[in-house]
Design brief:
Order of helices and strands: EHEHEHEEEHH
Mean pLDDT: 82
Number of helices: 5
Radius of gyration: 22 Å
Oligomer: single chain
Number of strands: 6
Low-confidence stretches: 161-170
Structural class: alpha+beta
Shape: elongated
Length: 170
Amino acid sequence: NCGVLDIRDRTASAQEVVSALSAYDIPHEHLLTRDIRRRFPMFNVSDKDQAIYDPNGGLIRADTALAAFQKMFKQFGGTLHDKELVRSVKPGSPAKVVTSCSIYAASSVVIAAGPWTGKFASELGLSLRLKPIKVTPMYWRIKPGQEEAHQPDKLLATEELPVTPTTEIS
């Protein structure tokens, strides 16, 4: 949990993010250009930029998280079957999982199917309102000589600004 600073130009999509966060009482701050420059001087933002700061946001490395999940799953007696297309999941006692390679029976099944979870959930009689979205994580190298400005204590937003939900991006 290191906080997330979402910098974008002043578009309707930014207002949608602020509105959604406000609607669900998720702590956040809506920062205009002058606020970004004061609190995060290491970022070169244009006069048309704004930001949404989520103090509870963070970064999860998917590869590390998956490896940890798989390790714990195996330690607790789970069995992994990689590179098998799951064709269906049938509830029951035992539950049956039909794949491209075999049919498995288990007392319980964990569905971790990413964007295909809705398909399997509906087969099980569950109506989940899931909408897969594509998220593109990006990483940048720090320019030589700029390391000090990017130290963790410089990136933390310690100065609190009043958070006022807006209906219009100015």
